[in-house]
Write a structure and sequence with these properties.
It is built from 15 helices and 22 strands. The protein has 529 residues and is an alpha/beta fold. The longest helix has 18 residues.
Length: 529
């Protein structure tokens, strides 16, 4: 009988949609077609028409996050084949986008009179999936009945697949502008994200199992059998015992990911976790996560905070995921709860501002999260206040104190904050960089540049500290860790505005006698011991 084997700690699962790296907007059935038609198709058409322009553009580091495919020109034919496949298989997606544009045009012409007469004029592909509404200024819009869309032909699980590969270095090419081609190596699993075989595979990170059994469960063919066998080892992972000490232990895994543990509970925030391979930069990795993660907290849907590449392999070990509640039916603000449930997470709980959930030894509370979303009406964002063992920790993510008086009101409600974690990405990309494919009419450049996806600068960070009176302040979520290169293109230097603004906040805190730091790569701290 073959010896049970462990899955290696550096095996990655890249979730794909039409062979493009999947994130928040590539799952919901109302937004995925917009990105297929108005981003992916256009990028592929551009590359096929003039691949040398893309090659030349990516020699300029300043253009690394732009709409340029990161392949040499001699792969243009492969991209052309993917483009033709997409145009054929995604015909319904293109029709969906055309229907949305038609509906939007019709609603813009509304004059404040009853919308009932417009329902028969809604494009057929959308009928029964939208409600037509006015706001109090008589501006008409459509609300998607999102749960129904997930049960409709518009939710295309057949477009989902996963690339299994090993990661042996931090440097990875920026992923959002470049599809994965079939000849890129690894093993391409043509299975939906919710497939139970994925849970069985990644359970073998901690518990040994049969390679033959999991190969059969995943439908791995003979052509991939040899490659698949290289993903396993007889060597067990290093032990990651659950914390059983006094007080609270916080381990910084990088960016906005912290493992927060007491002897009663384990909590993981915004999971983006490095893989385990030999490196000169020791860090916490997947191997350092406990067997059971009681709660995962998601602050918002951006790919450096809700990363399916990390979450899906952890699915079988997560008790409950806590997500912010969306507006409900908005194109720009799809439900994170519906998204995660439809990709296989059985227990997802939504919270709103000031909603609280009791946990062993404490509670979780959602607090307001302003800014960082280009002034769009996106409510699926929350700062998480964690109370545990008499200590309070606020994971404020990329909050921008554009109205600092919010924190006066928050402080009166929640009282003391022991530790504040705050992102300081004070520059931010223009709104269209992330949300452009959802727009039927592009923004004027000046308007676009004014609506940045930014967090607090030094002055605004100081305002938060003045109002919340934390004892400890940590700048996090800065994208500095090298294993985020495939989703973030930061390229900081010591003179980068983001680091200058962060140091302003840290200097102020230290002058006030507060503990202040900007963790990097790996850090551990304790509260209440």
């Amino acid at each position: 009988m073959p010896q049970p084997m462990y899955l290696k700690q550096n095996v990655a699962l890249e979730p794909l949609y039409n062979q493009w790296y999947a994130w928040w907007y590539l799952i919901p059935p109302q937004t995925a077609p917009m990105f297929v038609a108005q981003l992916h198709t256009r990028i592929m058409q551009s590359f096929v028409a003039a691949p040398d322009i893309h090659v030349a553009a990516l020699k300029n580091p300043a253009l690394m996050g732009g709409p340029y495919i990161n392949y040499p020109a001699d792969r243009a034919n492969e991209v052309k084949l993917l483009l033709e496949k997409t145009q054929k298989e995604q015909a319904a997606s293109y029709q969906f986008v055309e229907a949305l544009a038609e509906l939007d045009k019709m609603l813009l012409a509304s004059t404040g009179h009853s919308l009932e007469s417009l329902y028969p004029k809604v494009p057929d592909i959308l009928r029964g999936y939208v409600e037509l509404t006015y706001d109090l200024n008589n501006r008409a819009t459509a609300r998607f009945i999102e749960p129904l869309l997930y049960h409709s032909p518009h939710y295309r699980e057949s477009s989902q697949s996963m690339l299994l590969r090993t990661i042996d270095k931090d440097a990875r090419s920026y992923i959002f502008s470049t599809p994965r081609l079939d000849t890129d190596g690894g093993i391409h699993l043509h299975l939906p994200f919710r497939h139970e075989g994925v849970d069985a595979l990644f359970a073998m990170r901690k518990q040994p199992g049969s390679v033959d059994a999991i190969r059969e469960k995943l439908g791995i063919g003979a052509a991939d059998e040899k490659t698949f066998s290289t993903f396993f080892t007889e060597e067990p992972p290093r032990a990651a015992p659950r914390y059983d000490g006094e007080g609270v232990r916080l381990r910084y895994f990088g960016h906005a990911c912290l493992l927060i543990e007491s002897k009663d509970v384990s909590i993981l925030t915004d999971p983006v976790v490095s893989y385990d391979f030999p490196t000169d930069l020791p860090r916490f990795t997947h191997a350092d996560l406990p067997e059971r993660i009681d709660y995962v907290l998601i602050t918002h849907g951006h790919a450096d905070h809700l990363m399916l590449e990390t979450l899906i392999p952890l699915r079988g070990r997560i008790g409950t995921i806590i997500v912010p509640r969306s507006t409900g039916g908005s194109l720009a603000d799809p439900s994170l709860k519906l998204l995660l449930r439809n990709v296989g997470f059985p227990r997802v709980i939504e919270i709103e501002d000031l909603d609280s959930l009791e946990i062993p030894g404490g509670s979780l509370t959602g607090l307001p999260f302003l800014g960082e979303h280009g002034d769009l009406n996106i409510r699926a964002k929350t700062a998480h206040l964690i109370r545990l063992q008499g200590q309070s920790m606020l994971m404020a993510a990329d909050s921008n104190a554009i109205e600092p008086r919010v924190y006066d009101h928050v402080q009166r409600v929640v009282g003391k904050i022991d530790a504040l974690f705050l992102g300081m990405e004070s520059e931010g990309a223009p709104m269209s960089w992330m949300y452009g494919p959802l727009l039927h009419t592009p923004l004027q450049r000046k308007m676009d540049q004014s609506r940045r996806l930014n967090g607090s600068n030094g002055e605004r960070g100081i305002e938060i500290v003045k109002r919340l009176h934390p004892k400890h302040v940590y700048v996090y979520a800065m994208g500095r860790e090298p294993w985020l290169s495939h989703v973030m293109v930061m390229g900081y230097t010591e003179t980068s505005p983001q680091l200058i603004e962060s140091r302003k906040l840290l200097d102020y805190c230290r002058e006030q006698g507060l503990t202040a730091d900007m963790p990097f790569i790996r850090s551990e701290l304790f509260l209440g011991r």
